[in-house]
Design goal:
27% of the residues lie in helices and 22% in strands. The protein is α+β, with helices and mostly antiparallel strands. Among the domains are: 116 residues, no CATH class; 68 residues, Alpha-Beta Plaits. α1 runs parallel beside α6 and α4 packs across α5.
Length: 516
């Protein structure tokens, strides 16, 4: 509620400022509160060309133009000092009303051009104000995201550069405001060891309304849920603090540092939600649904769900003796990294035939099966997890990535019945994501020191999986994705660089990122 009120006050301050500025410039002040018309009059008042009417209608670009018009407004009132113009950019809802109430008069830029400034200052202002404008654009409108790993192959490829809409599901309030622009959570060149932000102040989660909701099958960018606590030696989050805790024991990760057998695992750090690593996966399960994976097929509420067209799993491929499989696998669009890994772990029978395990789509598997050099291929079925690497990482849950669940996905306001058996599934929901205390005492579950046989979540949760089903760290490993971790919806591949063969993949330019 408070954020909506602040947004309303900010809009009211800007409109009031324009009303007063228009009156001083001889423009009918009521035009300041008429949508579109106020933009037309403001652009003319600042002496900008008619093309700015169009710019102000383009999301993202219109934010840059807005700040330019605020700066222009200060200049046509002969308020040219660097610090005053910086104040205008930083706080338009306060500066514009002050300018309108002040004794300063308007000077028409057509008859009285603004006072010139030095080239050095012009460049400094342009760079500084552009960086300031980037903050609301990245926070509320869109962000560019590069696919770093193969977990979404072959739907989204390593090297794809995506346009991620923050407005689709509704932009989040910027929770960690003291952060350097254009840097997510660490300074460039520090390998993730030096943060690019100051954690205090940190604002509570709030999401403004979007024009859609998360749907099954959406390619969603979100903050890595298990990235709340990290080891500095593994800044990308692929190996988490919780895995180290499980693998090496609590003694190895006490005292702010982590060590195992004399080897440093780095310092232990915590990150706020919006500064955790960005991941991209496909939403498979929605709040309130029951999910189960049976023989690699996802079932939602008991019904099988068709896998994405470009999803891939690992196959065992048998090549005839004396055949180099590299070319055949490259033609099947297998990444060089996966080919190298397969060749390093290949097996050979007494006849000299080679057996490789490679990730393939159904189409790629069908193409390979038609080659004379291929003796046969078969899907690999992953064994049950006996080392608790899969969520919920607890005794009694011996699921596999191919046969998983059943599991119920929490929904806001929907009570979940709690037992000692299912408590591991919802422990992080209750504690890490919703800030409650939880303990089991004499067989009784206590939440916030009160006996509890159920829990009602305050937010929605989602189940995310990569399309590269056997080579994806996803919800099967670290569980539910809370609503407050959702960053945005992947919309388009703007361009794509081929990491294997070099150059640009022109056929992927402007491709729909949600094509399944």
């Amino acid at each position: 509620m408070i954020y909506n009120l602040l947004l309303l006050l900010a809009v009211a301050g800007i409109l009031l400022g324009l009303w007063l500025v228009f009156a001083k410039a001889g423009v009918a002040p009521w035009k300041a509160i008429v949508p579109v018309w106020n933009i037309v009059e403001w652009v003319k008042l600042c002496g900008r060309r008619w093309t700015w009417y169009v710019y102000m209608l383009i999301p993202g670009i219109n934010i840059f133009c807005f700040y330019c018009l605020v700066q222009d407004t200060a200049r046509v009132f002969r308020r040219n000092s660097f610090w005053e113009q910086l104040l205008a950019i930083l706080c338009p809802p306060v500066y514009l009303p002050w300018l309108g109430w002040s004794a300063h008069s308007y000077h028409d830029p057509k008859s009285e051009p603004p006072q010139p400034i030095s080239n050095t200052r012009d460049w400094v202002e342009a760079i500084l104000f552009a960086l300031i404008a980037v903050i609301p654009i990245r926070g509320f409108v869109f962000e560019l995201y590069e696919i770093p790993s193969s977990s979404m192959e072959k739907s989204l490829l390593v090297g794809d550069h995506l346009f991620v809409s923050k407005m689709a599901y509704g932009p989040r309030v910027i929770q960690t405001p003291l952060s350097l622009p254009l840097m997510h959570n660490s300074l460039v060149g520090t390998d993730g060891r030096v943060p690019s932000y100051i954690a205090v102040p940190h604002f509570p989660y709030h999401r403004f309304p979007g024009y859609t909701r998360v749907k099954a099958g959406d390619a969603v960018v979100f903050n890595f849920p298990a990235g709340d606590t990290i080891l500095s030696a593994f800044p990308g989050g692929q190996y988490t603090y919780y895995q180290a805790l499980q693998d090496f024991g609590r003694e190895a990760v006490l005292g702010g540092t982590a060590r195992y057998m004399g080897q440093s695992l780095g310092t232990i750090k915590t990150r706020p939600v919006d500064k955790r690593e960005n991941y991209i996966k496909r939403c498979i399960g929605l709040p309130g649904e029951d999910l189960q994976i049976i023989d690699q097929v996802v079932h939602i509420n008991g019904k099988p769900v068709e896998a994405p067209m470009e999803a891939q799993v690992i196959y065992t491929v048998a090549f005839a003796a004396g055949i180099d499989p590299t070319r055949a696998l490259d033609e099947a669009n297998v990444r060089f990294e996966d080919i190298d890994a397969a060749l390093r772990s290949r097996e050979t029978d007494y006849s000299g035939n080679t057996y490789l395990q490679v990730p393939l789509t159904q189409k790629a598997a069908a193409r390979l099966a038609m080659k004379s050099s291929v003796l046969g291929l078969e899907k690999v079925s992953m064994p049950a997890d006996s080392s608790h690497m899969l969520f919920p990482n607890a005794e009694g849950y011996y699921w596999s990535v191919d046969n998983y669940g059943p599991i119920h996905i929490p929904a806001a306001g929907e009570p979940i019945s709690l037992t000692l058996e299912n408590l591991p599934l919802y422990r992080r929901v209750i504690t890490a994501y919703e800030g409650n205390t939880l303990e089991v005492r004499d067989g009784q579950i206590l939440i916030n020191n009160q006996p509890a046989d159920s829990y009602t979540p305050r937010q929605n949760y989602y189940w995310m999986m990569g399309d590269n089903r056997h080579m994806s760290q996803d919800s099967r490993f670290w569980g539910f994705v809370p609503e407050d971790h959702i960053v945005g919806k992947a919309k388009r591949v703007l361009w794509s660089t081929d990491k294997d063969h070099g150059g640009i993949r022109w056929n992927r330019t402007f491709r729909n990122a949600n094509k399944k």
